[in-house]
Amino acid sequence: MTESTYTLPPCPECASTYTYEMDPLLVCPECANEWDPSVTAESTESESLAIKDAVGNVLADGDDVTVVKTVKVKGAAQPIKPGTKVRGIRVLDTTDEHNIDCKVEGFGAMTLKSSIVRKA
User: Fold this and answer.
1) Residues 43 and 60 grouped into a single domain
2) Which residues on neighbouring strands pair with residue 65, listed in sequence order?
3) Where is the Protein YjdM C-terminal domain (predicted)?
4) Does residue 90 sit in helix, strand or coil?
5) How far apart are CA 114 and CA 49, in angstroms?
6) Strand (E) or helix (H) holding 49
7) What does the alpha-carbon distance between residue 82 and residue 116 come to, in Å, rounded to a whole number?
8) C-alpha torsion sign, points 79, 81, 87, 89
């Protein structure tokens, strides 16, 4: 008998080499992670890094957006009202939810949450 040359990939969570197959998934016995081997790490990483607006559209640098909720601004007399247009946003790679850098007319430069804007 010959040994099989097919080896399973290591666990993407803990890098354990003791992975095994369980029908369509691969399983790690050390950290109990289950994943689909047909989905590449690059595709899941790019999907998770995409910044989406309130209705699910992917935002990119230079997009124009519209504010969909009232936003109270610290130090300002009035809030930013729904329907306010913001032109030429810049998408930030941050860990908090404030992932849009922009200039709002009448308020100046600020960061906004992507969940309160809609792509125009």
Assistant:
1) no
2) 86, 119
3) 51-120
4) strand
5) 13
6) helix 41-49
7) 9
8) positive
Alpha-carbon span 41 to 56, nearest angstrom: 22
Q: What is the pLDDT along the chain (120 residues), one digit of tens a residue?
A: 455 566 888 888 888 889 999 888 899 999 988 888 877 555 555 555 688 999 989 999 999 999 999 999 998 999 999 999 999 999 998 878 899 999 999 999 999 999 999 998
One-letter amino acid for residue 3 of the chain: E
What gap in Å lies between CA 43 and CA 28, rounded to an integer? 21
- What are residue 30's DSSP bridge partners? none
Token pair of 37 as six digits: 């081997």
Q: Are residues 5 and 29 in the same domain?
A: yes
Range of the domain at 69: 51-119
The pTM of the whole model exceeds 0.70: no
